[in-house]
């Protein structure tokens, strides 16, 4: 039997044509890189290992005569290449085939095959526990941005359950994993962020963040410093926290310029692949707006016809820095707010769904809410007139009064709170009732604007360099709210909304009988003995639950202010005085929360079981559809608040921690001495 000559390096049988003897150069190199091997003249090496050994052998150094003539000089191994060693280590990790001629995924032959980059091979090992050899090649269609696509990972078939590696490959793999762990442990990384941390940083849970990633991943590139998920996380973290690029660079461990590029790239990706799907008139149909995004209460109060579209409009403010351009400085200065700002116009449905964002606009007198609405309709921005039909309803505030004529010409019904004429001090009962019907629906746009400002980047003063992108940021925030946040007002409360609408419409037709009684008997002019509310014995006032109080006020806003009104009473600075006219009728004086010199008188008629009627001298105090905040505060205290502990009001007096310049204590002894002199 013929003798088998095995290669001293790879231990494979060397065919006669590939068999090579060991030269002195190869022997010295093998003794240096493989200390356990002692090559002799009878050993052989295969052609491939011999070529690798010559490639990795150190080249002669260009040195001076003194060094080259030194008999003790030993050339050092080159560090430009990793030393070659045989595949002598077996790992219980699946691996793919090693082939230059066929794709290791689909097994198709070349010739147009490429090598997978080192980052892609490392990603496949970390995420899927598969070792891909550096010698393996694949089709270009399986690789995207240096990593294997999801389809390629699913189609990839491993050839063996073990992996053959040399010492150099294992060492390289360990070093790469160590470096990756150091990077991820020192700095924030969204590739492996927990659900709670993701919610805190981006206002989205992990599942929502992954869904957002699926919308944007094909429009953003991986970079050596940040992955696609990290780029999206940087953008959302900046929107939610309002942190500067310098601070974000410290948190994420990348340069400030890289942060700036990430924000710009993700913003463009949002505007191309996410915002058009969830914001804008083209993103939703008219039937969907009416059936899915219109509250039943609004349909009962203003709809009358099922096919009517009800929209709520209002402008919001984005504050900016003062500009050195004087013309722009004048046009961006708001006399109403007393500071420079720009105004996006927000259009929402009665459930809080953002329909479209128009602008932003300048903030001078030529760009008030009415002027912006006129511009929207006359120029047909976003084809808004194509969405509207005759008989549709716009719920607006008093700032849109100059646009009512245009809305009437277009056949659109405008619902706006009543305006007091010059010389009037109070709205009539009918005007106050009608205004309450409108505010019951219109509150949703104020909450929608507050939802925008929850993203602190839009709540802070923005630099003027970001002016071209303010509209994009607002639209991105609104699209995220439409997709991932719950509606501000649920459209599913049909029975409850029908009961509330029926009650409001019935009370809307009534007059305030208590107001007529007060005016007829002149109770406001009679001399009365006012007593603090806690010292006044109010007999027979009903004790009401939270549900009963909510039915009286037709909402929670007035009840939330009640504890703040009563806080002055609990701290000893009580300005709430009560007078009992008769057993079932009381009057009270209540301090205005806006003006120190103004106090309102109010009257409440009650029985032992319920509060029957009320009247207040404030602007909206004559309404019977609900009640004003002043009446609600007194009713809440007499029916529920006085039975609670003072600490349960939940209102702290922060003024005790501050100084008061008007509080100057004068020493009596020093003043008397000065008088004697």
TrEMBL record:
PANTHER family cross-referenced by the UniProt entry: THAP DOMAIN PROTEIN
Source species of the chain: Dreissena polymorpha
UniProt entry tagged with the keyword Metal-binding: yes
Bias kind Polar residues: ranges: 63-85
Annotated keywords: Metal-binding, Zinc, Zinc-finger
UniProt domain SWIM-type: residue ranges: 600-639
Needed cofactors: a divalent metal cation
Protein name per its UniProtKB record: SWIM-type domain-containing protein
């Amino acid at each position: 039997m013929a003798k088998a000559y095995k290669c001293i390096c790879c231990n494979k049988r060397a065919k006669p044509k590939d068999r090579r003897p060991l030269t002195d150069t190869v022997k010295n190199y093998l003794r240096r890189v493989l200390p356990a091997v002692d090559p002799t003249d009878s050993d052989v090496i295969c052609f491939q290992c011999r070529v690798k050994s010559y490639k990795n052998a150190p080249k002669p150094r260009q040195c001076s005569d003194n060094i080259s003539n030194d008999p003790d000089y030993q050339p050092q191994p080159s560090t430009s290449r990793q030393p070659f060693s045989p595949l002598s280590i077996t790992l219980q990790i699946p691996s793919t085939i090693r082939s230059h001629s066929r794709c290791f995924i689909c097994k198709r032959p070349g010739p147009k095959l490429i090598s997978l980059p080192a980052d892609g091979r490392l990603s496949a090992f970390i995420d899927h526990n598969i070792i891909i050899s550096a010698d393996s090649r694949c089709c270009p269609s399986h690789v995207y941005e240096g990593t294997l696509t999801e389809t390629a990972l699913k189609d990839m078939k491993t050839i063996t359950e073990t992996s053959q590696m040399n010492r150099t490959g294992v060492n390289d793999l360990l070093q790469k994993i160590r470096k990756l762990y150091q990077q991820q442990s020192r700095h924030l990384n969204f590739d492996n962020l927990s659900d709670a941390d993701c919610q805190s940083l981006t206002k989205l849970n992990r599942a929502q963040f992954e869904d957002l990633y699926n919308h944007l991943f094909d429009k953003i590139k991986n970079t050596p410093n940040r992955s696609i998920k990290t780029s999206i996380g940087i953008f959302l973290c900046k929107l939610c926290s309002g942190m500067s690029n310098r601070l974000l660079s410290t948190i994420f461990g990348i340069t400030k310029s890289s942060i700036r590029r990430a924000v710009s790239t993700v913003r463009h990706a949002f505007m191309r692949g996410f915002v058009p799907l969830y914001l804008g008139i083209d993103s939703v149909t008219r039937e969907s707006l009416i059936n899915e995004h219109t509250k039943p209460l609004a349909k009962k109060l203003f709809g009358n016809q099922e096919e009517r579209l009800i929209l709520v409009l209002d402008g919001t403010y984005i504050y900016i820095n003062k500009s050195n351009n004087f013309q722009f400085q004048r046009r961006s200065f708001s006399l109403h707010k007393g500071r420079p700002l720009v105004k996006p116009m927000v259009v929402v449905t009665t459930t809080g769904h953002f329909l479209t964002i128009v602008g932003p606009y300048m903030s001078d007198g030529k760009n008030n809410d009415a002027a912006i609405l006129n511009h929207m309709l006359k120029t047909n921005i976003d084809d808004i007139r194509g969405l509207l039909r005759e008989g549709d309803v716009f719920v607006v505030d008093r700032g849109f009064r100059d646009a009512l004529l245009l809305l009437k010409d277009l056949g659109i019904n405008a619902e706006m709170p009543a305006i007091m004429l010059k010389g009037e001090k109070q709205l009539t009962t009918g005007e106050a009732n009608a205004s309450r019907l409108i505010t019951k629906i219109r509150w949703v746009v104020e909450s929608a604007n507050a939802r925008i400002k929850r993203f602190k980047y839009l709540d802070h003063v923005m630099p003027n360099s970001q002016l071209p992108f303010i509209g994009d940021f607002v639209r991105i925030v609104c699209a995220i709210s439409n997709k991932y946040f719950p509606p501000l007002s649920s459209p599913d409360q049909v029975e409850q909304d029908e009961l509330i609408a029926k009650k409001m419409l019935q009370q809307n037709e009534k007059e305030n009988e208590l107001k007529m009684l007060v005016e007829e008997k002149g109770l406001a002019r009679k001399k009365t003995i006012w007593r603090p509310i806690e010292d006044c014995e109010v007999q027979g006032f009903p004790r009401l639950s939270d549900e009963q109080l909510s039915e009286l006020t037709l909402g929670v806003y007035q009840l939330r202010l009640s504890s703040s009104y009563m806080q002055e009473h609990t701290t000893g600075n009580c300005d709430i005085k009560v007078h009992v006219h008769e057993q079932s009728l009381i009057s009270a004086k209540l301090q205005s929360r806006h003006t120190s010199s103004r106090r309102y008188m109010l009257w409440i008629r009650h029985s032992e079981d319920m509060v029957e009627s009320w009247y207040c001298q404030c602007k909206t105090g004559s309404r019977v559809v609900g009640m004003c905040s002043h009446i609600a505060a007194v009713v809440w205290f007499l029916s529920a608040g006085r039975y609670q502990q003072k600490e349960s009001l939940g209102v702290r007096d922060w003024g005790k921690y501050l100084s008061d310049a008007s509080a100057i204590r004068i020493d009596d002894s020093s003043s008397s001495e000065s008088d004697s002199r």
